[in-house]
Design a protein that fits this description.
Elements: H1 3-13, E1 18-21, E2 27-30, H2 31-47, E3 55-59, H3 64-75, E4 79-82, H4 89-99, E5 101-106, H5 111-120, E6 128-129, E7 153-158, E8 168-172, H6 173-186, E9 194-197, H7 204-214, E10 218-221, H8 227-236, E11 241-244, H9 246-254, E12 268-271, H10 278-288, E13 292-298, E14 301-308, H11 310-318, E15 331-332, E16 336-341, E17 354-360, H12 371-375, E18 378-379, E19 383-392, E20 398-403, E21 408-410, E22 413-415, H13 417-424, E23 430-440, E24 444-453, H14 461-472, E25 480-483, H15 496-504
Parallel strand pairs: 1-10, 3-4, 3-5, 4-7, 5-6, 9-10, 9-11, 11-12, 12-13, 24-25
Antiparallel strand pairs: 1-2, 7-8, 13-14, 14-15, 16-17, 17-19, 18-19, 19-20, 21-22, 23-24
């Protein structure tokens, strides 16, 4: 099935039920209105000469009409090109040039940026504000279905960009269909879900919208993670599902009013996008209830390669014997096979550390017009190499140790930053942190903790280093502690490369 088939099914089953909702609870569009609007957008694009396979971008912060544009683009047979709205114009233009974007639909507040991109990207046609009713075709005519091509590209997503220039990842209609099935297998709710979308739709939060709509649910659209607004919306809108990366969860937990709201409607609090500190996960179970879920995926193998079920996380939080599983991203989903591979292409057994590799129809076919980068992800036996170092226990739970590229080599020893970061997260005064290797004449790379403190807290560096030595040993303990703001991507991921680059500009070696 195509995503538009799910949209049409929802409109037939519950035409007057809310589909897109504002944070205050106001219904923006019902399922029928949403379907009809996507037909009007698709009709306008086809009238303007957009052909199947053309790349069409949407330049907008989170907004209900932006989601309608995405589905309208797919209905027209074109390819949605995701534009990271918080990136600079040069990065946006580079991505649009890479994929050969033909046109942009933009939020009216971003008209100036759209005009700037028209000048920077060769062949980009004049952009169109997506709220202009006179641009849309009249309500009524239906856009004829395009030929069913499950392997056809539906969208182009930018990679996280945490290791440099973003690459374009094609997502096919088949992958979207599989994601929808995966949610119905592992994360299905007894009633149509009420999903709160607060992080950018251009990333994983947007992908979660699709299985929500496929189940006839509603999406409550927030423009960013403001703790008081998000927590209040969960209570007010009786939210049943929310997706956040760990850094956004930490923001919610740090809010002094986090325990004052009613979370009884929650069924799935989904965390993905980066390793999650076990102590923070246990705290989240205490605050939000036995509803925490974790998955593992990447743009190249999206969203649901592993699943750590709500019951499993709740058991691990309650039972000290199972507590180690709080560090796991779960077990392979019904859609994927996960293994651990060494550098020679051998599959490893339980407890052995190596690269996490995936074999699944969720895995992409390759980066857009970049065969060299694609080849770097291929492993013997048809496996996709994630670039994550991990291991699997006797019960099949997968643990992400760290990114291969983030490993620190200090005095001849290998140190994975995530282990140090997990310990730092146990300090109540630390809001977030990143551990990196910085150039050092004695150690080669010195383990360095860069921390953000919570309001009203101060951290004594010497005391922190001493505590790390006692718990982790002298090799893994930071040699230096820096308190400062951490650079972040548009979805809140810490940009470790940008952080390292500030200190490695005069060094001979990059890590």
């Amino acid at each position: 099935m195509l995503l538009v088939d799910y949209i049409d099914r929802g409109a037939r089953a519950a035409p007057t039920d809310p589909c897109l909702v504002d944070p205050d609870g106001t219904t923006v569009l019902t399922h029928k209105e949403f379907r009809d609007l996507t037909h009007r957008i698709a009709g306008a694009l086809r009238r303007d000469g957009v052909r199947p396979g053309d790349r069409i971008g949407v330049l907008s912060r989170n907004h209900p009409l932006a989601l309608a544009c995405i589905v309208g683009i797919l209905r027209a047979g074109a390819i949605w090109t995701a534009i990271n709205v918080v990136s600079g114009s040069a990065d946006q233009a580079d991505f649009l040039t890479t994929v050969g974007c033909r046109r942009i639909l933009h939020h009216p507040d971003l008209a100036d940026r759209a005009a700037e991109l028209e000048k920077l990207v060769d062949g980009l046609e004049p952009s169109q504000p997506f709220d202009a009713d006179d641009w849309l075709v009249p309500t009524g005519p239906r856009v004829p279905d395009r030929p069913f091509e499950p392997g056809g590209v539906a969208m182009l997503l930018p990679t996280g960009g945490t290791t440099g220039r973003s690459k374009a990842v094609p997502i096919t209609h088949r992958q979207i269909h599989l994601m929808c099935l995966g949610f119905q297998i592992h994360l299905r709710e007894p009633e149509p879900p009420r999903y709160l979308c607060a992080t950018p739709m251009t990333h994983a939060a947007g992908l979660v919208c699709f299985p929500t709509l496929a189940q006839g649910g509603r999406v409550v659209v927030h423009d960013g993670v403001v703790p008081e607004q998000v927590l209040g919306s969960i209570e007010r809108n009786r939210i049943s599902a929310i997706f956040l990366p760990p850094t956004a969860l930490y923001k919610l937990l740090a809010d002094p009013k986090v325990r004052r709201y009613d979370y009884s409607s929650l069924r799935q609090f989904l965390i993905a996008g980066a390793p999650l500190a076990p102590d923070r996960l246990a705290e989240a179970v205490e605050v939000f209830g036995p509803v925490m879920t974790q998955t593992f995926g990447q743009a190249e193998a999206p969203l649901i390669c592993t699943v750590h079920e709500t019951t499993e996380i709740a058991q691990a939080a309650a039972d000290p014997v199972l507590g180690r599983r709080l560090a796991s991203c779960g077990r392979p989903s019904a859609l994927a096979r996960i293994e651990i591979m060494d550098d020679d292409g051998n599959l490893l057994g339980p407890g052995e550390s190596g690269e996490i590799v995936v074999r699944s129809d969720l895995v992409f076919d390759g980066y857009w017009q970049d065969p060299d980068a694609t080849a770097q992800t291929r492993r013997p036996g048809g496996w996709y190499g994630t670039g994550d170092v991990g291991l699997r226990d006797e019960d099949g739970f997968v643990y992400i140790v760290d990114r291969k590229k983030d490993m620190i080599i200090t005095g001849g020893f290998n140190v994975f930053p995530s282990e140090v970061e997990s310990f730092l997260h146990t300090f109540p005064g630390i809001d977030d942190c990143a551990v990196i290797g910085l150039p050092d004449p004695k150690w080669g790379e010195a383990v360095t903790a860069v921390i953000e403190t919570r309001p009203g807290h101060t951290i004594d560096p010497d005391e922190l280093i001493a505590a790390c030595k006692a718990h982790l040993g002298s090799v893994k303990a930071p040699k230096r502690v820096i308190t400062r703001a951490l650079p972040r991507s548009g979805i809140g991921k810490v940009l470790k490369r940008a952080l390292r680059d500030e200190y490695w500009t005069t060094a001979d070696r990059r890590i």
